[in-house]
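Example (one chain per record):
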Amino acid sequence: MADEELKFQRGDLAGVMAAHSHVGDWVRDFEKRYGSRPIYYGPLDRGAKKQRPLNLIYVTKEPVFVHIYEPPSDEDGGGQILWFGLEPQLNEEEENIRRDLVETLLQEAPTAPSFTTDSEFETILGQMIDRFTISQSEASIVSRRRGRIWELVGLDDKRIVVSDAQRERLRYIVIRDLIRNGPLETLLSDEMLEDIHSVGLKHIHMDHKVFGMVTSNIRFREREILSRYLRAMSERIGRPVSDNKPIIDGALLDGSRINIIFSDDVSMLGPSFTIRKFAEETISVIQLIKWGTMSAQQAAYI
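Predicted structure:
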């Protein structure tokens, strides 16, 4: 988080937008729709609760950012605080590249180095993505050096040509879907969230440490996609869910607790889940004083 503070100072929304195109696209679309521009708050603290109007962007884990917005009471969504997860997006062309890249990665997986942790897996996967993609500038140089004769003898370069920006977006999406938390990555990367509640195909709601109950822009649009995701999630944590075993409790890889209700017989609105997140770092007495939970005198006494 300290690195982010050095890279983007509070108020430097233009810098964030220039460095992260998905944030820039979001802010421009938001301005057209709502007629206002958020501020860049930086890493979030409890003081953000006093911000008025409540329209700010904070960083969680780059390249993921969060936009918090409280619409006026006479606007659509008024009376609630909206939480928007901002992450890199792929266009149609890049989605096709992603499919080809994932297919290549799966074909090459048997020859990849072994790993014992998700961190090692992520490093290996990143190296494989670099290996099977080539930047446009590199491809141009290679093409000039090798010429047509390489293709004639069957030595043409099979790497996928991408721009540097495309490679970074592809890296994020592929690692997000294969190793991390898929469509819930923006939620689970936000340390300010405590409880995450998803019921059927409704928008996901969360308990926020600073803003209380918030409504996200994330929801599953098809029941089959939701069911497939929950099956995969439950299998990954070693507690497979099914119609015969419709309720399970378990722990995600980051230590968060998850409860899944899978069957329509148990949940009339469709598959549902609740995630209870825990802080990555132990809360210190100094943090409690900064948050106003206790005074310095009370801390000294205990």
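Caption: The chain has two domains: 2-89+184-276, 92-180.
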